[in-house]
Amino acid sequence: MSAKAPAKEVAKAGPSGTAVGAVPSLLPGLLVCLAITAAAVAVQAVEEHLTGHPYVEALVIAILAGIALRTVWVPGERYRAGIAFSAKQVLEVAVTLLGASISLGAIVASGPALLAGIAGTVILAITASYGICRALGLPARMAILVASGNAICGNSAIAAVAPVIGADSKDVAAAIAFTAVLGVLMVLGLPLFVPLAGLSEHQYGVLAGLTVYAVPQVLAATVPISLLATQVGTLVKLVRVLMLGPVVVVFALIAPHLPPEGASVRGSPQRLGFFKLVPWFILGFLALASLRSLGLVPESLVPSVTRLAGLLTVVSMAALGLGVDVRVLARVGARVTLAVTGSLLVLLAVSLVLIRGFGLG
Length: 361
What we know:
It is found in: Cell membrane. Keywords: Cell membrane, Membrane, Transmembrane, Transmembrane helix. This is Putative sulfate exporter family transporter. The chain crosses the membrane at residues 21-43, 55-73, 85-107, 113-132, 144-166, 172-194, 206-229, 235-256, 277-298, 304-324, 336-358. By secondary structure, the protein is mainly alpha-helical. The protein has one domain. 72% of the residues lie in helices and 0% in strands. The chain has 17 helices and no strands. It has helices at 4-11, 27-51, 58-72, 77-98, 105-135, 140-153, 155-165, 169-189, 193-197, 201-211, 215-222, 227-241, 244-254, 274-277, 280-293, 302-322, 334-357. Helix 8 (169-189) packs across helix 17.
């Protein structure tokens, strides 16, 4: 291949880094996700017709269907690009569009107590998770990865922190793989806290925002409860994600003092760009929320935008399910399993104490 070929490919790349000429390669995987979405929506429609209420939402059905399909079929190379696109870019658009349904006045009305509670939860969760990991004998860098993913935003936090602390690639892969599985379990199990803990819709939204790993997973965990829970959960989660910037900076300062853990450790911190610390879809969400707060988004348009965001989220949840290999639990090891599970239980406990004990929500 000539030296000019890569330059041509780069020239055709769009903002997301996907080459324009590669768009047809997205279709096979995207069509699989759309097929799962259509089936999930159809099942929900049947539920509503028979019982008058969707006891299992299309979001959850799509995740379960994706996991079930992944268990019996490993997507080939031709499907992977489309599935990855659906799991990332599609869900980022969905989160951005959700901003049109939310007024930033809700953040202001929540007061400084909620903002302080979110920051406090992140700090306590990182500290406790790191302590649990080290007590179980995990290396310092692996402990930081697990603690960051648990406390802030799962895979995104792990991916952002890994280069600045010089983490081993195997540790990064193990942390991300387990977080993917546990994140889905959180989406499926968290709604049980509404009847078990007697939470209101607002309180449940705060709980979801404080504990669920990824922004789109917050949608999946809250949409079955109510629109209020979804709005509150998304706002809390976005504030929590914004903690990633300060956390990465702190770990970058700590990294040179961490003990070496092998030849594959890179050792020297790497600088991250602004859009690594603050993803574009968060900025898009805040921009649309600001326009809505200023009355620049017509009220008649909001229901349609919200429905579109919901449908795109179902597509992304189908892709998320297709990316989960439940057999990974047997491969990551007992110590990592205990560390991540224990860290999540601590995060849930801290969040519930803040909500019920201190009136946070």
